[in-house]
Amino acid sequence: xxxxxxxxxxxxxxxxxxxxxxxxxxxxxxxxxxxxxxxxxxxxxxxxxxxxxxxxxxxxxxxxxxxxxxxxxxxxxxxxxxxxxxxxxxxxxxxxxxxxxxxxxxxxxxxxxxxxxx
Length: 118
Prior knowledge:
Elements: H1 15-24, H2 28-40, H3 44-55, E1 58-59, H4 60-67, H5 71-83, E2 87-92, E3 95-100, H6 103-117
Antiparallel strand pairs: 1-3, 2-3
């Protein structure tokens, strides 16, 4: 038998709660942007890349070697991650190193791992 969602036994609305939540709700554009950000996290390859960069900044060659993928595939996913502002890069001579864009990304990855390990 399928688990059922518990529901109220009678229909009742709590206006004070509704008003509070309405005031706090972000606008539709912000919610859309948030949903798009989470879509980026919905790809296993991108999560693997983010986890690698959680541990250390790396160049495309190293990431490709570590994940046993082509540099082209890694570059494509890095482009998506960069467009989502999740990774940044720096040039050192002819080598470009990628890293997590900021501590927010580090926190999301860290908290995600904590959540699944509970």
